[in-house]
Amino acid sequence: MIIGIDLGTTNSAVAIWRDGQSELVPNALGELLTPSAVSIDDDGQSWVGRAALDRLATHPSETVTSFKRRMGTESKATLGKRSYTPEELSAIVLRSLVDDVEAATGERPTGAVITVPAYFNERQRRATRRAGEIAGLEVERLINEPTAAALAFGLIDKEEREPFLVFDLGGGTFDVSIVEMFEGIVEVRASAGDNRLGGDDFDEVMVKLAEPKLDAADVLDRLPNDRRAALLQLAAEKTRCALSSQNKADFRIAVGDEEFTAEIDTQEFEEAAEALVRRLRDPVIRSLRDSGVDVESLSDVVLVGGATRMPVVRKALTRMFKRFPNSTVHPDHAVALGAAIQAGLLSDGEGLEEIRITDVAPFTLGIEIGMDDAYGGRVNGIFSPIIERNTPVPVSRMQSYTTSEDGQRQLKTGIYQGEARQVANNVKLGELVVPVPPKPRGEVEVEVRFTYDTNGLLEIDVDIPETGFHKNVVIVDEEDKRSRKEIDKSRKALEKLKVHPRDEQVNVAAMQRAERSYEGFTGPVREYIGRSLDNFKAALEKQDPRVIADARESLLRLIDEIEANPPI
Amino acid sequence: MSGYPWSILGIEETREKSAIRKAYSVKLKTMNLDEQVQEYAQLRDARDYALRLAAQPPASPPRGAQPDYDDAYEDDDYFDELEWHDDAEFEWQIERRDFVDGYEGGDLGDAGLSGDELAAAAIEPPELPDGYDELHAILFPGRQHSDEGLTAEEYEQAEDALKRLIAWAEDGDLNRHGSVDYNLAEMLAAAWPRSAPLVERANVAFHWLGEAGGLDERPALQFLNARTQGMRFHESVLEEDHPLHKAWLELSRPGKASMIDRLKINRNQIDKLLLAIRGSFPELEALLSRERIDSWEKPASDVVSWIVQRLFIVFVVIQALRFCASADDRAPVQPPLSAEEEQAIRDEGKDTIAAALFGDGFSYDQLVETDPAFAAQLGTMIDTLVRAKVLDGRLVRPLLRNRMLAARERADFDTLLAIQAVHLEWLKAASEAGGDACGDVLSGSFSGGAPEVSAETEERERALARDLLEKKLLTLPSRTGSTTYQIPGWLVDAARKDTGLSEARFGEILQDPEDSERCGVEIALIENMLSVPSRVPIETLRGL
């Protein structure tokens, strides 16, 4: 079975193609979204999802979130006794999603379609693929998140669609795609984005806004950094969500026995977030320009991603497009649903007519060259594009270059992806070394052909017509050279982590939540939660499922009530 | 079927969009895209062309003609609209785009507008944004470009107009925002430098720096962004903790640099600053004092000051020696000499020094005869030494070695090899001596004195010095600033093997002349270069 996975910055979701439609699979807590959070303690005991997120407040040094933002980098997080790469952490989340599918269908999935932001570069895509492999999945395909959302959107009414715009603002990444649908073809005309912009950045703005108002500098300064950051981040997220439905909200933190609150209103938050909102505009303009589609001729603006719920974002959108955006698809579910449709297509799922998806290369690909400047000097490190961004893939393009030195015997150049004129500001994908016959400069012609296929594989052919030399290179990233062994090693290490038995996970999560809530309040409320928590622990001792379920429910109801109307 | 593009789509000529799409879909679904890359590209082109034909008014195009993209790609005209003046001092003519359809998206493909609709849109008078005309009037007084800065009052008005214009743009949809963005960038670029104080605000509003360095950065923005960065650099260099702050102050003072300035300010910092400004923000050079820059750069005065510095050192040495001599009571008091005797002794002394520098039997007169210009430079120094009765050629050697290295600039291939061979020996000796000695050789300043080499090498050095003297290569002024040359890959590899450094580290060292391992790297490079000189480009031979 092939499943569709939306591996998000804040939340992840998994969906399957069943009985002619795509459906989301709930996790052990019965929720359709699993927070992308992992917590591991010194004993190797692990928590994933909601429970891990709740542990962020109580055990910040053992918990990580938003690791998708570090995909494709070497930055590791140390949890308990070991450090984990972003792909290992992602693999832990993926594995729990796979468990959920197994529990729901009785069958363990072997393959997956995983979504990535359209604006993820090659390195980030490869890291995602590795994450899937570490989780024991055959990654059948990586598809772009807005493309997946468009698929889900398109299948709702199966209508022909003039070009529409998918606006996907997630927790950590931002994508814009222009998509058109007709005659069973889903055609992505252009994608643009900012893989460093998302809901997390709005949280940061909120923290900056609220922190000075809290008047808690002394207390906060005494806290360890990670605890302080976690405290503020969680409060910011809560306040931000509250501001989606009301004009004022409290930014509230509790440290020890002290509580601090600051009132934030919509207007001041919007002003503080202005710089971020401006950054939303650039990718929209770029994608429209690249696709040659006019704002007026867009048939729709489809919103995807949790952060599009923010009124400040909606307002900016309405102004940009002079119309109200479409929210027929569920912004948090569309991507996973679309991934499952793609999975269904790959396994010839029933109820699916043939659909062809054609996508574009979101980045320009090219090589490093040197050029003579106007003063007889030489400038190196110039980026020479071979495949322009937003060219439909697969694509094959050729460019000719000549040697730059007399008697040059070797041509050595870097292969880059990006939009900057200087290669130093682009992402390096690999290197190309070719022997050339020694001749005066400029006399040896070298033809470089780039072929970029639908799986995002870049193949390079180098020809030297003069000597008949031919070389074919498939670009392999440095990190990709890591053998299967490394992936197996990671997998084995992750298997050693202790996971709570599935039927206990609800209780574990309830306990984490109560503990977090306990920390978050002071005085009598805290005491009250503490007592209820003790009751729940006592119920667990009884080992009677019905008693436990009752105790859990009353505990959670209590917390829900307290958190919804915090006593002042 | 009727030729391109219909033959590729496999249908009869039609104006039905849906028929074209259907045909495309049918064809596409039979393809394996990854194996039929070219066919896929052709099919897409054919479809796009067919859709464009379908969107045009029914005057039928010549059949079978290849696609005529000219009218379709509006962007081609884009660059033509920006005319550069012939005497282009970063000025251009401004051409305002319509504020209604000004957005660059253009309507490629099937924008879905019929000819009639387009005509209707064109008749509508363009909506003029609030503040635009006012801003234009202030920036172009009397509709002319002006180099004058804004007065305080004008600035206030301009700021106000700009704020209103930005507000108008931000309140509008993408089209409106895009057209203000475009026109404002053009206007500010055209009005430069009068527009300078307004650029930062506009940059924040339209996120212009976000496009900086990008492949599709608009020409107006290339111009403005470079200046915005320049203005930011200027601001930061005025802060006291900026590493180039002192050099900036020095170069902005009027008048020539004095001797004391030269001792106070590090020459490297001056070079770095000038390099940074000329490379990235050429417009900032106007803020500095021309005369002072010249005085720092002028090679002649450089040599003079260099000699004066040297003389100062020599003078101190001599005073020290004299002091020692006079302190020694046992020194016999010499009877005063006659003027002729003294002259004879002096001539002899000059010859001794000349021989020490250019080999046995080489007299001072010969030196004057062979290269009078160089002899004049060297003569002042030798004269001072002789008068002080310090007949040590080594004290003059730093100057000579400096000139010998400078001679690489014009030497022929064989001479170059000889210079490099000796250069290598100096480096080796300096590297053994440790400390700053190596840096002195690398910079060619020899300010800590010339490193001692073996007698054999010294002999070679003398022969080379004489050779260079005869070829009149020693009078060259040393170049200031940096020279660029390339080091071939094989040479880097070979040197890297010798030094056992990683590629990254090696590159780092090559970038930083003050790196502690630079000496070893240069030695390895020169050694390898001399082993197969024919493989090395001549610029590299000169530069290293």
UniProtKB/TrEMBL annotation, chain A:
Keyword ATP-binding included in the entry's annotation: yes
Pfam families: HSP70
GO MF annotations, alphabetized: ATP binding; ATP-dependent protein folding chaperone
SUPFAM superfamilies assigned to the protein according to its UniProt record, in alphabetical order: Actin-like ATPase domain, Heat shock protein 70kD (HSP70), peptide-binding domain
The keyword Cytoplasm is annotated on this UniProt entry: no
PANTHER family membership: HEAT SHOCK PROTEIN 70KDA
Listed name of the protein: Molecular chaperone HscC
